[in-house]
Amino acid sequence: MAATITMPRLMAVGGGALAELPGTLQRIGLSRPLVVTDPFLVHSGPLERATAFLDRAGIRWNVFSETVADPTTAVVEAGARRLAEGHYDCLVAIGGGSSIDTAKGMSVLFANGGKMRDYKVPAEIPNPGLPIVAIPTTAGTGSEVTRFTVITDTETDEKMLIAGLACCPLAAIVDFELTLSMPLRLTADTGLDSLTHAIEAYVSRRANPFTDGLAKSAMRLIARNIRTACAEPSNRAAREAMMLGATTAGMAFSNASVCLVHGMSRPIGAFFHVTHGLSNAMLLPEITAFSVPAALERYADCARAMGVADEDEGNQAATARLLDELRRLNHDLEVPTPRAWGIDGARYEELLPVMAQQALASGSPANNPRVPAAAEIIELYRRVYG
Ligand SMILES: [Fe+2]
Fold it and tell me: What's the rounded Cα separation, in Å, for the pair 59 and 53?
């Protein structure tokens, strides 16, 4: 079956790419941006530099800076109202995945009306949204190139997956220099998120030859640079590799989907407010161990791409090395278990049935090489608790 590939129309990639913002808008005929960011970035270097470029080009802009980590329906609705109050022709999202995901939600609501939950997967989004130019300041979510957004329903605490062309930015500016000041924990968590994207895109039942190359390239870049980026924050080569890895992993999973790790990760984030990359990392080794028997060769390829197995090594040995490496990475980057992170055991146990149900409802587990039933998901949650 032919794969349908969704990507931004225009991208500026590399150190200093932020300067391309006005030119990028002009090239695609946009002139009235609402800038979407978070309160911490308002007086920070990246936002001030981005808006200075706009001022110099004579582009009038306004800012919506009320985004929150793990964007909520309440914030997205407030943002869509702001959008309706002005005469904007696009959104410029600058920040981590939360700012970009918020802009996507705003664009979808502005163009389609209704409530965010009306567009929860598997629902379709009828109208393309307002154009988005995405500028990531972390190397992780890949949201700058994906056709997904994840919005938490304020009423139910559910992290809803929303997907479609309307969620894919029209343009992306991928400038690794914006990540040079990221603190260690953020570097590790976002980097592990992008490694999870690359692995899940490659083993997904919806993987295709187009996404395979992107996923392997992303694994190569991320696995070989994540420790250096954490240990030496100003190492430009490592930061550039991580940024490129995050964006290419985003392109891969946007067109091949994520699998069981992401499916199980979203409920942990929604109920216990564990950051997205960290909840993925808590799950990645055990979920990989569960899934390996169903896709031995694919996981062996991951080990080879990550540089932990030789090209001529057998699949069994290579997948054993992959599991070792994923556990070692969690150890080296100080990823806690849910228990060590502080999640109460009784509350966790009590929520397992609803977490498993939400994981399955997201559709992501159905893309996994080994598709678990609800009872197996509950058992896996118990295994990772620690
Ligand atoms: Fe992710």
Answer: 9
